[in-house]
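re the bet — no i am not wrong, look at it urself. input seq straight from the record:
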Amino acid sequence: MTPAVRISGITKSFGNLKAIDSLSFDVPQNTIFGLLGPNGAGKTTLFSIIANFLQSDGGSIEVLGTDVRRPSELRGRMTILPQDAEFQGNVPIMEQLVFFRLLDGRSRAEAEREVMEALGKVGLEEYSRRGARVLSHGMTKRLGIAQAFLGEPEVILLDEPTAGLDPQNANQIRELVRDLQTRATIVISSHNMFEIQDLCDHVAIVDKGKLIQTGSVDEVTGSGRELDLRVSRDFTPEELARLKTVTGVLDVRTKGEKRYTVSVNYEDEGDEADANLSSLLRQVLDLGVTPRGLAAGTSLETHFLQVTGEGETGK
């Protein structure tokens, strides 16, 4: 299947600064794809090139099999929500969004119908005749998502869609993004690792303009292959040896105080895997140790910090 987005050898420099350095990866169709990287990694620059706001120095990008340097062929098929998207404060929201649809060749009646449907999905119908100045920060973010809903885009780029939002508004935006996945491929740039791990199927990690790693979230974090086990006390060497005899357990290693990494057989699935985990927990309890937590794989944030060597995540 042709990827929704294919990035091939993209380079971009600003003077002596190489923002993107021979970057290549694919975004599979019908996925929510996370673009991650520390400050200055080149994420926003890449988004701008995909959206044809900037020209690359080399390489190519195809969206839905079309070179992004032919934007007329992608009209209506791709939309973008910049991080700091702004709307006219004094112009009615309805008129602003209708204008975008008229540019895509819709009749006014079609445009107004599509705009009201989009505003309904984000709970802003009652503001359709008012200017954006009356909207809170969270409502403005929802308005940006509504713009992404307009028409039938097949690829949607969202740059930091929940930046600066309180937890309730951020969760609303995530639910809206999940709704979008039913009919589009979504590429999200975000510094929120929990958000990316919660939302995304696939990720690409970039650092200093280079690709560090790409793949499904499970592949990147090792989910399903390793378990993070936290317990009430440390195991003795004899107890660790006993745990390693549990069916499906390949190894048990000390990770920290009262914390262990359990390697499991990746080929086990479904009921068999559940039975193996139950056996492991029974063995732990039989040793007089209380399990405090059991999680699959490493967190995306932990993995990100390991592969980039950064203590700060962001744009």
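see?? The radius of gyration is 23 Å. told u. also Residues 311-315 have pLDDT under 50 and may be disordered. so pay up
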